[in-house]
Amino acid sequence: MNYLTESAYCDIICYETQLFALKDNGTVEVWDFDLPTLFPTNIMSFRPVIIDFDGNEFPRDKFSTQCYLVESMGDLLLVNRFIGNFVNSEGFAVDESDLGIEDTQPLVCPYRTKGFHVYKLVSIRNTWEIVESLGNAVIFWVKITLCHCPLRIFKGVNPIYYTDDNWDQMNEDYLYGGHDCGVFNLTDGSSKT
Question: Where is the KIB1-4 beta-propeller domain (predicted)?
């Protein structure tokens, strides 16, 4: 099996002296460079929950996902971001053909983040379990850099602060810039932009 051409990598992180490489096909490869091998020492599948906080399934034809790896207080987290490909003026993900003129003007790229799910690696079972609270922490996305900081002033909010990282669509119209920014509350699934 050729690991280099099978699927593209979308995120990597060093964690506990190993390299974790997230692929766009939903697998996470673990590379231990202390071992004399040119192949991953472990390959884990990631099967995300695809329901929102109201129990509704994110329709795959109206949503895309982006995943990120981040270390938090000694744990390895996998953050799954759900993005409505076309979102109308009421905030609902719709088919592109359903957008009216009021939804597309002045918008050029009407995609919008609609939610996040966070998973923690349970290495003893080689699985990912869903995280319902960040504890005393907050996750920030700034441009294409992901950082995780201790929570000091945002108590009780359980937030994920995010910025637009959809560079392909933003670059289609450089005057538009990034619009998909906001705060997502992991406790109740609400967003503020």
Answer: 7-185
- Looking at residue 37, its pLDDT comes to 77
pTM of the model: 0.79
CA distance 50 to 43: 22
Cis peptide before 48 (omega within 30 of 0): no
Q: Are 64 and 81 contacting, i.e. CB atoms less than 8 angstroms apart?
A: no
Tokens representing 9?
């990598």
Q: How many CA atoms lie within 13 A of 79 on its CB side?
A: 29
Cα–Cα distance, 18 to 30 (Å, whole number) = 7
Strands 159-162 and 137-142: parallel
Domain ranges of the chain: 1-45, 52-192
Determine the Cα–Cα distance for residues 104 and 114; give it in Å rounded to an integer.
18
